[in-house]
Design brief:
heterodimer; A: 831 residues; alpha+beta; five-stranded mixed sheet; elongated; B: 611 residues; mainly alpha; two-stranded parallel ribbon; FA core complex associated protein 100 (chain A); WD40_repeat_dom_sf (chain A); Faap100 (chain A); TPR-like_helical_dom_sf (chain B); TPR_rpt (chain B)
Chain lengths: 831, 611
């Protein structure tokens, strides 16, 4: 099938249109045009300019001309039906050149409303009768009014049809939201007496009689056909609506002809024969095409009949029009011309099978939302007037060559015009191709991006699943590790966490990815409720092998509370798949709620050990001052003045806690190679204080003096002792880790941190120890007794606290503190 | 302090100017709707100005009067609920002016408060004006209970011993309607009250009629007759009285009131229509035709002049849509014309009937000049039937060529619908739509057959025997297409509907007529055997047809079968033509005998005596 070439002329360009309420009516050289806003433009095709602008009070739904074309009826969104006379130079239809080059603005006054009814949906005018269709409480009612009539209009009749439940039509939400208005068409029987009105289609008398009955045909009455949004096509005889039924009763004049089961877009007549158009054509929104033809009475005297043929074309159909041979319809992407034929009785079967495969010719004009015509201009070519979605008014010159067979030679005078037309159509096609290419490119990009995202996720999820199996040595393709550091900013020291996201996988992380770091304090202090914070770092691109360093503060609301758990995850936001000017708003709407997916990367814990400061460059000025007195004391201290209070703090003996671990256990777990006890102690201390610097020793003695985050000095000490009476096998080498400081908080925090480290170490590598030690019952018994006695004391203290009330809290806390120290000072040995 | 009285004066003057314009327009020969609209918008603007400042007692009278005028003007331009909203606003402002608290927006309670607060003050006339507006609005919405409550509140001074009744309440209503000459009103409160009174009573009567309680309705209408009222309204009251009498089985009383109605108001169409119905019931075709003719001319006159009544408050507005259509219910001009034509032809005044039928056909064909509607729920006959009736009338009026043309129309239009065969199964029970389709098909066959039959008769009258025989044959061929499976359908009543039986009787009658007609043609052409066959068949179809019997006698006589002839002769005189309910176009006429029967009579009597 050849693509039919047609030329397109741009007549004018307006602003964007509302696709479902664009209407064009041609009246001689004038064009009445509405784009679904408040204006009706009168466009002179010869002068190619807007001569008059009629401004209505509300946005336009439908337009129609009265029978004599002197009055314009307009249905607006406020439910008002306006009737306004057309400007005189229009109604005379003469080619009067308007002297003034400016277009006339004409505001349609409020009192030109002839009918106000918010449920009005559509209307048409025929035979000086105004037919309106309104939907009220699921009843469609057709109302007939005298036209032109007094105001308010004199109502002549009213018929009603109940709506169908439309859920059976499987309307998608989109189709429902863009509800298509009903279509009202008035069809006249073709005949010698019929008035030659070009506003309404005609139908040959034979088919007209078969479809609409004897009465309509005898009276030559036009028939109103109505395509409802539920797909039904109803009809009633306009002039003789209330006729007696077969049993003498009055019957409903409205009859359902057929149902398209999809919103009806267009009803018209087509295929001219000698008595007028021979087919009734209806087009549904989703591309269903109904063609009604008459079947001739065969010779056997069988009664004549008509046939409904249903075909489908590619939807969605936005608008359509017919000439005597073809149906033109516009889907959003193209304008099509469909050749329609009539079935003659002899070749009925053949043609019917042919018709199943109706093919349409593409005219190559895209985004047409309204059509008028077709019209035959004086030179004999057929023209369509079209309005595109972007508000362009186009004149489509249809090719005539298809039936002539050969293209006639053009006279040279017309050749220039022809070239111009061809260039214009090339430009049009180029524009269309460009827009399609752009759309395709965008789609491909999105898909590629999505593919990559899914790949990255599968990598991450593999990591996560294998986390336990992997040991520390192997590296994940995408990993995140963090180190806590002290940094000084604006003369203030603060503890920050530096996280490094390393992409060692083969693929690139494109834009749309975000590194999320959630900091979650583990201790639950009085003001710690909901103090976990999340930091997001969106990044544009992370190539393979690149690293991303981010630093987040660990303090919240000016307080540092340790230990802190840090969760790192990679999040991808789906909206990044769609470019910001996404063509389909529906998808991005869907994304508003759960528009992202996230995959966990790693979990870190920052504890007191991490927050220790090894160096002594810890100036007093930078110590945090919680209260005013603290500040004053610090000031005094810095001046060298010792107050009495500070004396007492310094005098009080440092608190000591210790942890004992079997040195053999640590040796195997930490893979220590050192043989001497001193080296062993140093390595253990190194492991505790600076785990990241595993190789070089940052600590050169078994005793290290460090500063806790709150500025107290802490002594950490590791030494090896031998417990002789502990094991039945002989003396046991035990590493004793001792923490000494005057600050209770530091001691507790460090003790907890050390225990946690050991716990992790022992849990992570659950290698069975070679043999269990035989413990001496005596030492075990003693230890248990010691603990039991402490427990009893604790119970006593609790009882007293319960009885004592507030007065004795000081004493109680002293007791409890003592118990705590005793428990910590003489711990059990970890074997 | 000096500004306020000045404003009051200025606004009063503005109001008076508007009213003056209106009164001039009202008095003028050509009352103009635009003037009314202008008055309305100006009055509304004035009201908005007045409402722009807080309500106060010194301006209360002015404000209420302007509200009253505005509401009267707005009747044609706003709907009742909009006016009611504005009225509630006015009442609230009146209460505010008197310093009362406005607690609710329910109109009944609001009125109670207003009447209590202002009921004994100098503002009573103004309050009562607004009360009339409220009454009017509720009347328009047919809310007679609320009207009753409102009027009872107004009459609160009286002791209620008698049962509460809207009629007595209205009768006893004492409203102070004195006018203030310095503040003009668009319609005097007294006039409005009288109009509302009579309309309320009429409304009650109509409601009673709708519930088929005609004697109660009569009481209401009789009360309404005693009240002062405009002519048109009085005519309608008389018509409604007549209708109630007709329903109560007193047609002569009904006719009396219809006549009174027409005397009072010459344009009272419903009275004419109702009297035509009564005349038909009484079997007085001449009077019926006359009434219908008057009605038809009146309808045409009325449709010529535009019926825009200029009066400020018309009863049509007060009664609302449904009530008004009930009161002045007249069929559409086409329907009247058809009834008139049908009645004329049916009762033998052929020449008038033909003219009416031709008028009707012309109005149907004239590019649909008017919509054929029937306002009163009856339906227009099918168009082919109208054509056949017209053809029949033309035939009887001896305009044979015209009759041929009219029937040809029916034939061409029904041609496509005639089935090859239409077999009806009397046992089969058809439901709703299916049975309608079957009936429609039978109708189409019947119409086509009848059209051929009429054409054949026209040809026969034109002495074109050959064409006549052809057309009779066509008619027979069409009609025999309807065929009932069961032979004894006439005796047994199957599950069939009345309509089906009626159709079949009609088809049989048409068949009989066609066969008899063809037999007659054969008889004239001397083909006696064929004539005998057809006439016999015809008698089988429609036994007891006198003309056919006589023709059969003639045929038998000519065939020298004198015994049989004399037997038939005797049978003809012993039987009576059974009256059959046939459509107009199949009615038989005495003049259908094509030849002189006196000759046959002489022969037969001679033969019988000779025996």
């Amino acid at each position: 099938m050849d693509a039919v070439r047609c030329s397109v002329e741009y007549l004018s360009e307006f602003s964007d249109c509302q696709s479902h309420s664009v209407r064009v009516i041609q009246d001689g050289v004038n064009l009445l045009l509405t784009r679904g806003d408040r204006e009706v433009l009168i466009f002179n095709v010869l002068e190619r300019r807007v001569t008059t602008v009629m401004l209505f009070e509300a946005s336009m739904i439908h337009l129609a001309l009265s029978d004599d074309k002197h009055r314009l009826y307009a249905l607006c969104a406020n439910g008002g039906l306006y009737c306004t006379p057309l400007p005189p130079q229009l109604s005379s239809s003469s080619v009067q050149v308007n002297k003034s080059p400016d277009s006339v603005l004409f505001t349609v006054p409020d009192d030109s409303i002839v009918l106000k009814n918010a449920s009005l949906q559509a209307f048409t005018i025929a035979e000086k009768i105004l037919v309106t269709l309104s939907l009220h409480k699921s009843v469609w009612s057709f109302d007939l009014y005298e036209e032109p009539g007094s105001r308010p209009l004199h109502k002549l009749a009213c018929f009603q049809v109940v709506t169908l439940n439309t859920c059976c039509l499987n309307l998608t939400d989109k189709e429902k939201s863009v509800s298509s208005p009903p279509v009202l068409t008035c069809i006249y029987p073709e005949g010698p007496t019929s008035v030659s009105t070009d506003l309404h289609p005609h139908l040959e008398p034979h088919l007209f009689r078969l479809l609409f009955g004897v009465d309509a045909s005898l009276v030559n009455s036009p028939v109103i056909l109505c395509g409802l949004p539920d797909g039904r096509i109803c009809c009633f005889t306009l002039l003789v609506p209330t006729l007696a039924g077969p049993t003498g009763e009055q019957r409903s004049p409205v009859r359902v002809l057929q149902s398209l089961e999809q919103p009806v877009v267009f009803i018209g007549t087509c295929v001219s024969g000698e008595h007028g158009p021979q087919c009734l054509v209806a087009v549904g929104q989703r591309g269903k095409l109904l063609i009604v033809r008459s079947k001739q009475a065969s010779l056997e005297g069988k009664k004549a009949d008509y046939s409904f043929n249903e075909h489908s074309v590619r939807g969605p159909v936005l608008c359509a029009c017919v000439d005597d041979k073809r149906l033109y319809y516009s889907s959003l992407s193209d304008l099509h011309a469909l050749q329609l034929t009539t079935t003659s009785s002899s070749e009925a079967t053949e043609t019917e099978s042919q018709l199943q495969t109706l093919t349409s010719d593409s005219l190559g004009v895209c985004r047409v939302v309204a059509l008028a015509g077709p019209y035959t201009n004086p030179t004999g070519s057929v023209q369509l007037l079209a309005v595109s979605l972007s508000g362009r008014l186009l004149r489509v010159n249809l090719p005539q060559g298809s039936e002539k067979g050969n293209v006639p030679r053009l006279p040279s005078s017309l050749a220039g015009q022809k070239v111009k037309d061809l260039l214009a159509s090339i430009a049009n096609i180029w524009e269309r191709a460009e827009s399609l290419k752009h759309k395709l490119q965008k789609k491909n990009d999105s898909l590629k991006h999505l593919n990559q995202v899914i790949h990255v996720y599968s990598l991450l999820l593999d990591n996560h699943g294998n986390e336990k199996a992997c040991n520390m040595g192997t590296k994940h393709p995408i990993s995140c590790c963090g180190v806590a550091r002290w940094s000084s900013l604006l003369q203030r020291d603060s503890l920050t966490l530096t996280c490094v996201l390393e992409n060692s996988s083969g693929c690139t992380l494109e834009h749309g990815w975000t590194l999320c770091i959630q900091v979650h304090p583990l201790s639950k202090g009085p003001n710690m409720e909901g103090s976990s914070r999340t930091y997001s770092f969106p990044f544009m691109k992370l190539d393979s092998g690149q690293k991303l360093d981010v630093t987040v503060p660990l303090e919240s609301t000016g307080r540092l509370s340790l230990p802190v758990k840090v969760y790192c995850s990679l999040v991808f936001s789906l909206s990044a798949l769609f470019s910001p000017e996404a063509s389909s708003p529906g998808v991005s709407q869907l994304l508003t709620e759960t528009g992202s997916i996230s995959a966990p990367l790693s979990t870190l814990t920052v504890d007191w050990l991490d927050a220790l400061r090894l160096d002594g460059s810890f100036s007093h000025g930078n110590i945090r001052h919680d209260t005013v007195t603290d500040g004053i004391q610090a000031f005094l201290r810095s001046r060298g003045v010792l107050t009495k209070d500070s004396d007492t703090t310094t005098k009080s003996a440092p608190i000591t806690v210790m942890v004992r671990v079997s040195s053999e256990l640590l040796k195997t777990k930490l893979h220590l190679s050192a043989t001497s006890s001193g080296e062993r102690c140093m390595s253990v201390l190194n492991w505790l204080v600076s785990p990241e610097a595993r190789g070089q020793m940052s600590v050169q003695s078994p005793v290290v003096c460090v500063y806790s985050p709150d500025g107290c000095s802490v002594k950490l000490l590791v030494k090896e002792v031998t417990l002789g009476d502990f094991c039945s096998d002989g003396p046991l080498e035990v590493l004793e880790i001792r923490v000494e400081s005057s600050s209770v908080a530091a001691v507790c925090g460090l003790h907890h941190a050390i225990l946690r480290r050991l716990q992790v170490l022992l849990r992570d590598s659950a290698v069975k120890c070679g043999h269990t030690k035989q413990l001496k019952a005596q030492s075990l018994f003693e230890a248990v007794r010691h603990v039991e006695s402490l427990y009893k004391e604790l119970q006593d203290a609790q009882n007293q606290a319960a009885l004592g009330g507030t007065m004795k809290t000081n004493k109680n806390s002293e007791i409890l503190f003592r118990i705590f120290l005793q428990l910590r000072a003489n711990p059990l040995v970890i074997l | 302090m000096s500004v306020i009285p000045c404003l009051v004066d200025r606004w009063s003057e503005e109001n008076n100017n508007i009213i003056l314009t209106w009164k001039q327009n009202e008095r003028g020969l050509e009352p103009n709707q635009h003037v009314r609209k202008r008055c309305w918008s100006e009055s509304l603007k004035l009201l908005q100005k007045i409402r722009g400042i807080p309500a106060a007692t010194e301006r209360l009278e002015l404000e209420m009067t302007v509200s009253y005028n505005t509401f009267l003007f707005s009747l044609n331009f706003c709907n009742a609920s909009e006016i009611e909203e504005s009225l509630t606003n006015s009442l609230s402002r009146a209460l505010e002016a008197c310093g009362s608290q406005v607690s609710c927006s329910d109109p009944v309670q609001l009125w109670e408060a207003v009447l209590q607060t202002l009921g004994s003050s100098v503002y009573v006339p103004c309050v009562h004006k607004l009360l009339l507006i409220q009454w009017m609005l509720w009347l328009m919405q047919c809310q007679s209970e609320r009207v009753l409550t409102l009027l009872m509140q107004t009459n609160h001074k009286r002791e209620h011993s008698a049962p509460v009744n809207l009629q007595t309440e209205t009768r006893n209503l004492a409203l102070s309607t004195e006018e203030d000459s310095s503040l003009k009103v668009a319609m005097a409160a007294k006039d409005l009250k009288d109009l509302l009174h009579i309309c309320t009573v009429m409304c009650e009567g109509v409601e009673q009629m709708k519930m088929e309680r005609y004697s109660e309705a009569l009481e209401a209408f009789q009360e309404a007759q005693g009240l002062p009222s405009p002519r048109s309204l009085l005519g309608q009251i008389h018509t409604l009285t007549g209708q109630s009498f007709a329903k109560l089985g007193q047609p002569h009383c009904a006719l009396h009131f219809y006549r009174k109605a027409v005397e009072v108001d010459g344009a009272c169409l419903s009275a004419l229509y109702q009297s035509a119905l009564v005349f038909r019931q009484l079997g007085n075709p001449k009077a019926e035709i006359e009434a219908l003719h008057l009605l038809y001319s009146a309808v045409q006159l009325q449709s010529d002049k535009s019926s825009s009544i200029a009066s400020l408050v018309s009863p049509a507005v007060l009664f609302g849509g449904a009530q008004m259509t009930f009161i002045s219910r007249v069929p559409s001009p086409s329907r009247i014309l058809h009834t008139l034509a049908h009645t004329c032809v049916f009762n033998g005044s052929i020449s008038d009937g033909v003219e009416y039928y031709l008028d009707l056909l012309a109005s149907l064909q004239s590019d649909g000049k008017d919509l054929i509607l029937t306002g009163d729920g009856t339906s227009f006959p099918r168009i082919p039937v109208v054509y056949l009736e017209a053809g029949f009338a033309l035939l009887k009026a001896k305009r044979y060529c015209d009759a041929l043309v009219v029937c040809e129309e029916v034939i061409t239009s029904t041609l496509d619908f005639i089935p090859e065969r239409l077999l009806l199964d009397a046992d089969e029970k058809l439901k709703g739509a299916d049975s309608d389709v079957v009936l429609e098909n039978v109708d189409l066959v019947l119409w086509a057959g009848a059209a051929h039959l009429l054409q054949a008769q026209a040809h026969w009258k034109l002495k074109d025997t050959k064409e006549a025989i052809t057309n009779f044959t066509r008619a027979i061929n069409q009609l025999v297409k309807v065929f009932i499976k069961q032979k004894d359908w006439k005796q047994k009543h199957f599950g069939n509907t009345e309509a089906m039986i009626e159709r079949m009787v009609t088809v049989e009658a048409a068949k009989g007529q066609a066969l008899a007609g063809r037999g007659l043609c054969f008889l004239e052409g001397g083909q006696l055997k064929e004539a005998l066959r057809d006439l016999n068949l015809s008698l089988q179809m429609t036994p007891g047809c006198k003309n056919t019997e006589m023709w059969l006698t003639e045929v038998l006589w000519r065939l020298d079968r004198r015994e049989e002839a004399s037997a038939h002769w005797r049978e003809v005189h012993s039987t009576e033509d059974a009256p059959k309910k046939l459509p107009l176009y199949l009615q038989l006429w005495p003049d259908d005998t094509a030849f002189d029967l006196s000759d046959l009579k002489k022969k037969m009597e001679g033969y019988i005596q000779a025996k």
